[in-house]
Amino acid sequence: MNASKIRAKTKILTKISRMYYMQNMSQNDIAKELKIGRSSVGHYLSEARKLGIVKITIVDEKDNFRNSVLENEMIQRFNLVDCFITDDKDGTISNHLVDYLDDVLPYKGILGVGGGFTTYNLGTMLQNSFKRPNLSIIQLNGFTNDFEETSITRLYASALDSKPLFLPSPLLVKDIKSKIALENDPSIKTTLSALKKVDTIITGIGCNKTNDNAKYLKAYDFLDIDSLYKRTIADIGFHFFNEKGEFPIEEIEEKIIGISMKDFLATTRRIAIVYNSKKANVLKVALKHHIINIAITNTNTAKAILDLD
Fold it and tell me: What residues are paired with 202 via a beta bridge?
């Protein structure tokens, strides 16, 4: 980016920051005045904080529910778009997270929602969120025999008054020929096309040690589960990665029905919710290698991540 573009970008970031922090304008009002999307305002404010245009000091009061010190350290250490850390216990999600997501989740376009129990539990808490009738909620992957990702998609769409986009397909197929046939089915093809337009993703992370998602793959007899465990540490949407942030399990990557990792990594906001300190290492890998760029977690997990680094 040349000097003139940098100056122009700094000017708009400064303008939006002054409108929000000094003129007390809401993000909705700023969006209307500047004729941009509300989610863009939130993104610009996050970028302004990241670049040091805005420096926020939070007094450590008793009722402060966010750990801003850890948030800033995580953002700087892993070059994150944003970070949200509370003192919630492992496995517990407070309503403060719902308030935060109201500022982060888009109001239009396509939101991809991953599977997992943490993602599902959050969906049950979104009933009082701002409604988003111009937003579509899309299922990222086909379903397993034991856990239907369609139920999570439907839950989020109902809570946000958004349009659900389902992927009526199994998670994996046995061979490439079957995959091609399924992907050419009109109902599946429409959803797969929409997956390429996803701008924001919210998902959990499966950890091999806690046996989150790998257990669902035992039904596929063409997979070597022992090899999968040895070669990877965790997965996002059944895309398994190793300590280097690589996705080495080709027999899954080439046969999965759903969003590809290339398309996943092309999305602007890749949000992971991890409220389990036992997953500190896998979240750290996902952040370090920029698989995820917005972390939502608790104090114990964040401290464990920083201690590991």
Answer: 113, 271
